[in-house]
Amino acid sequence: MILSGIKSAINSLVSNANDSLLVFTAYCKISPFLEINKNERISRKILIIRGRKSDFISGASDIEVLQLALSSGWSVYINKNLHAKMYCIDEKKALIGSANLTNGGVKGNLELMTEVEIMEDDIKKIRSIIKSSTKIDQDNLDKMISFLSDIRDQRMKEHVLEEGWDFESANEIHYLFPEELLLPCSINSLSSINAQVLGVSEESSDRIVFNAFIECNEYKWLIRILRNSKDQKASFGELSMLLHNSIISNDRVYRGDVKKYLSNLQGWIEKYSDRQNVYFEKLDHTTLFVLR
Description:
CATH architecture of the largest domain: 2-Layer Sandwich
Domain PLD phosphodiesterase: 78-105
Largest sheet: 7 strands, mixed
Order of helices and strands: HEHEHHEEEHEHEHHHHEHHEE
Radius of gyration: 20 Å
CATH class of the largest domain: Alpha Beta
CATH topology of the largest domain: Endonuclease, Chain A
Protein name: Phospholipase D family protein
Shape: globular
Number of strands: 10
Organism: Amedibacillus dolichus
CATH superfamily of the largest domain: Endonuclease Chain A
Low-confidence stretches: none
């Protein structure tokens, strides 16, 4: 595990790339991007960022990164659900952890990264995430730049009503990371981990928490599965198997843990059973999740 020297670790990994470089980072700033853009041997370069409007307005990401990346031969994608941070070379090795490609991420914050070997199953999952993301061309980038320029001129930074872009694809959730999975639902208080997963504070109102819940990746994953299943129904056993195959983790994920994750999700749905799109049908030996 790497707790310090993350900038050096990332730059060292990238400098050893011979064929490809893939970067997943929720936020991206120009200075650290310039550092990883120096290796001229790399023929295939892919950058995926979260790319929400608010990310650029707040300065969490720099729109200039996308322009530089396109002009330097990168394939650039945005995915508004992205939370992962990964730096992968030649589809063989990767640094995975908490560090975004930002000044704070690579040298300021307390971050953790680990180097892993990439397997064939990992490559399939990575490619699926890329496929579910929106590729940015110069026309789309020009639209983004124009929008951000208008927002700054109108001093409307705090009033962006829509996070997504009109050209952005649906970004259906195919895979989940462990940090996107909710702990058990508490009727009286929101745990700090659940608050972090949902992107709310522990003091947030019930309505805010509910709105965040139906927008979280775990719930969207369930909706996608049910929408594509026969009769828009799936049993607990079927879903636990699908969830087990959908979790991306460096560590082995046990079926018992997956059942706990699914039970947690069921508890959240039951708490808000009168407000959302899923309900339950009880059978003799299992529970069916049903899309209304």
